[in-house]
Write a structure and sequence with these properties.
With about 90 residues, the chain is mainly α. Helices cover about 40% and strands about 10% of the residues. Strands 1-2 form a two-stranded antiparallel ribbon. The longest helix is centred in the N-terminal third of the chain and has 34 residues, at about 15-45. The model has no long low-confidence stretch (mean pLDDT about 75).
Length: about 90
Amino acid sequence: MGLLKRPKMPEPTAEELAVTARQKVALNKEIEDEEKRLKALARGGLGTRSMLAAATPMGNKTKSGGKKRGQTFTMFGQTYNTADMMGAGKKS
């Protein structure tokens, strides 16, 4: 059974430990910078859309000649509108 034992890994040297520590610090800094950039990007995008903007009730006609919102597509010879599929044109 002594023949199948693997040799023990040598302890890491001080130089290897220092390299590993520097890599961890650099990776954490890079992650922090990326998170800051993404947060700033999200803030910039959210600032252009106001949640307090006047909302239009669903089912109302739009300015484009009274057409419904959504895309139209044809399947099996019939034309469908995605707004109808989501219940936008239905009255309760």
